[in-house]
What we know:
Layout: E1 2-7, E2 13-17, E3 21-25, E4 32-37, E5 42-48, E6 53-58, E7 62-67, E8 73-78, E9 86-88, E10 96-100, E11 102-109, E12 114-131, E13 137-142, E14 147-151, E15 157-161, E16 169-174, E17 180-185, E18 189-195, E19 200-207, E20 213-218, E21 224-229, E22 233-238, E23 243-249, E24 254-259, E25 265-270, E26 274-279, E27 285-290, E28 297-302, E29 308-313, E30 317-322, E31 327-333, E32 339-344, E33 350-355, E34 360-364
Antiparallel strand pairs: 1-2, 2-3, 3-4, 5-6, 6-7, 7-8, 9-10, 10-11, 11-12, 12-13, 13-14, 14-15, 16-17, 17-18, 18-19, 20-21, 21-22, 22-23, 24-25, 25-26, 26-27, 28-29, 29-30, 30-31, 32-33, 33-34
Amino acid sequence: GVTALLLLKTGDTVVGTGGGIVALCKGSNYKVMKKIQVQGAVTSLTSRGQGHQFFIGTSNCQIYRVNYTSFKEELIAACHHEAVHDVVFPVGISDLFVTCSKNDIRVWYTPEHRELLRIIVPSVTCHAIEVMRDGKSIISAWNDGKIRAFVGDTGQPLYVIDHAHSLGVTAITATSDCKRIISGGGEGQVRIWEIGKKTQKLGEILKEHVSAVSCIKITKNDRECVTASLDRTCIIWDIVRFTRKQMILANTLFKCVCYHPEEHQIITSGTDRKIGYWEVFDGSAVREVEGSASGSINGMDITADGAYFVTGGDDHLVKLWDYNQGTVTHVGVGHSGSITRLKICPGNKYIVSVSADGAVLLWTYP
Length: 366
């Protein structure tokens, strides 16, 4: 049907439809003179100045500019149109970051706030992403149980690991030598994959969690990792001998976990709104601070020197914390949906936060 109308000064009408067609109709008999096709249903049309240009907004979160004379569309802004599930910076690079959502992964160029690359996989949802340390590939976790890897520069498919997890892949990370991937699934298993030049094979399965793995972090020396799960436990694993080192229990569904850069402590958070500090050595609780007044905390990230960390969650607020004091130093108000993940960029210039309403927000640090 017709979803938007724009009356021009000449008496002609621009008509937008639910099928993404924008047509120029003659004022006297509504005969179609020119038409173009855009992505998504047209939600709004608006003219600029004397009507020499007009803008099109669509349900796929795209904004187009059209010159009235040539009647050709030009994409000027785009974003995710479904919940954004993860955001990640390549190691040591602050000018690029990658986000993932339903059907797609997008690479963004930070200084110009524009999309560089879009990788589309129809009708599946991407839960988590990671950029390999060598920058050559983007690995991603999908709800159809597959791990998909794409070439970093072009977005071409590199390889797919089928049936990686039975209830969808929910978390993913990689070792710094780019030879192993650690994935977590909806059934609670943690799997370690050996990645060769041409082959990807299952190395080890760690079965302790009984519910979905929500977050995986790995130490700098690739010998240890921590997994957070919705079964109210965080487990620290030895990934050389493939054994459990420590188990942390709390009455919360863990959503996120971070190593302190010195790797002697971890911080966790989740649905009980509290931020827990834990000793890596024996899994003992160091302290607990109230993280949010309402709703769960879904994402956290820590600075490279370990002095500050950020959290975000269902209260729509981005909070910057002093690690040692355990106090909030800055609060960012701007999201209109639950924050799903956030990251501090390398070099501490920005904080990027993503939310369930499809927004990607860039904050000046701090």
